[in-house]
Amino acid sequence: MPTPTGPTPTGFTKPPVVVTVTGAAGTIGYAALFRVAAGAMLGRDQPVVLRLLELPGAISAAEGIAMELDDCALPQLAAVEIFDDPRAAFDGVNQVLLIGAKPRSKGMERADLLSANASIFATQGAALNEVAAPDVRVTVVGNPANTNAAIAARHAPDIPRERFSALTRLDHNRAIAQLSHRAGVPVTEISGVTIWGNHSATQYPDIFHARAGETTGAELARDREWLVDDFIPTVAQRGSAIIAARGASSAASAANGTIDHVQTWALGTPGDSWTSAAIVSPGAYGVPEGLVCSFPVRSDGTDWQIVEGLEINEFSRARIDASVAELEAEIAAVDALATR
Ligand SMILES: NC(=O)C1=CN([C@@H]2O[C@H](COP(=O)(O)OP(=O)(O)OC[C@H]3O[C@@H](n4cnc5c(N)ncnc54)[C@H](O)[C@@H]3O)[C@@H](O)[C@H]2O)C=CC1
Ligand SMILES: O=C([O-])CC(=O)C(=O)O
Question: Whole-structure pTM over 0.90, yes or no?
């Protein structure tokens, strides 16, 4: 049963967007909800109804968060509702953040979470298929994010698969930050970075089309020792470094990446810049059709479009292929789980 915190106020200039956040009482959920409610994701003039989906044991924590949201007196927060049933939480939903899942701990790879988390995304995909709004958009954050998005999309055959995407914006932001340090220019002067492949240690942060102020990424990439031994592993293994340092997986930066991802999807990419998101491959850049793979993308405010025509050199091709091979292995593992 939903637990509204109070009647929905009237008088908004736009109809509210219904946003459901799963794992709302978890660390990423807690870091994301207040910013979503304050308009960082969909705009400061866009009213939102927030639906918090949690496991029964975390409903009390979700109720505490709802009280805190209330206490912010945010002008565009139309209502907060709490659920432990996905079908009810997704009824008529426009934007879904699928965050709720088990995080990895020290020594695990994200793929180790596959069997623990696959059933969550199967159940939630099926529930979305039944009750979500016709314009629903689904962002998968829970790991392994690419394959969980593929699972959710497979269980929602009536929702166009382009409506499912998985988060690699955190990796994209990490790559921008590292490049900014290397080139000594502000992050606002970095463009043309791409994360290819899986949100895992095999991901390939590609700078061959990037710019860092007056310097091109191709020039920076001439220092192969830095590229291979420093930049790529620092970005690709940042999640592990944070777990080692913090004793828990990235939360505030993951929430920030999630908000950036949905903001770009829903409001569009500014200018001719691009970002990275994991979307269902239409067969672009040699990535087999149907895999949820990270690509260079833009959004027109409705759908993602893959940036076409980038030249892929031999160095990049080998790394993209390696990450794609891992995605294929994850899907094969899901198929094996389903037949057990
Ligand atoms: N794609 C990305 O860039 C990133 C993904 N992650 C992943 O995000 C996920 C969540 O991370 P945290 O918030 O740190 O974990 P957490 O353990 O703090 O919170 C997870 C929450 O999900 C809830 N939950 C579990 N199963 C659920 C279900 N079936 N329905 C609704 N809620 C459910 C739990 O009760 C818990 O409150 C993890 O899988 C983590 O690995 C984390 C960082 C970055
Ligand atoms: O590394 C993890 O398990 C959490 C995560 O996905 C990230 O920080 O990129």
Answer: yes
